[in-house]
Write the structure tokens for this entry.
Amino acid sequence: MVPRFWWLVSIGPMKTASERRELLKAVYQEGRVCVECPLHETRTNVVFGSGNADAELMFIGEAPGANEDLQGLPFVGQAGKLLEKLLGEIGLERGDVFIANTLMCRPPGNRDPYPHELEACQHYLFAKLELIQPTMICTLGNFATKLLRGEPTGISRIHGQAEVRTIGPRAVRLYPLYHPAAALYTPSTLEMLQADFLRIPEILRMGPPDQPEPSLEAPPPEDSWLEGPPPEDAPPAAPQEPPPAVRDPPPADSEQLGLF
Ligand code: SF4
């Protein structure tokens, strides 16, 4: 399957920040009524992500939780407050960075996302990467780290170790961190998270890594993070062509929602 937003690959330096922001808003408007996987049936809101549309630093967590699903924004609640506090300790605010998840709709009961759900949603994340053009991505927690690195190494072994990785269309400085929720009630995890956070400015100062050569000839090859069939208890995948009727409210301007 060709990624949906393959046409965004290669836009790179040709687009201004303002043009990329407008394109990001267009992807947002499409994403907020998405019905491409079964999670659209149980979500309250699509959690597209929020923050600076031209951010150097991006955070990627696993999937929306109950509060995020209700508010349509990522990392609200206690984990979000801790993330904001940690950002403040390195001189940044939430509006300086962009925060998103690997999946934009909440899995029922906060279960782990299924592979076919992640695969259906990955083109939105790739589009965000291509349009925001971050230098650095901090994965938050085990799930996002394993998924974006494409390897099973757990967060306890890999946290705080920056490396250059190509995620979809873009090479970034990938920096795995413990999930703020895991640090809320475990002082030793909080200490490690704080220490890792303090290294973020130094990694940002290294600047963006070299980017892969874009191809204008054809869409990029299928590039899935995922391998293997869905688990046996997974519900069937959504049809390729979504039905026209959706139950979301009509699109609103993203400014009103405090996005970007
Ligand atoms: S999780 Fe992603 S692919 Fe699935 S319905 Fe939500 S936005 Fe669409």
About this structure: The longest strand covers residues 170-177. Residues 11-208 form a domain with the Uracil-DNA Glycosylase, subunit E fold (CATH 3.40.470.10). Residues 21 and 127 are 11 Å apart (CA to CA).
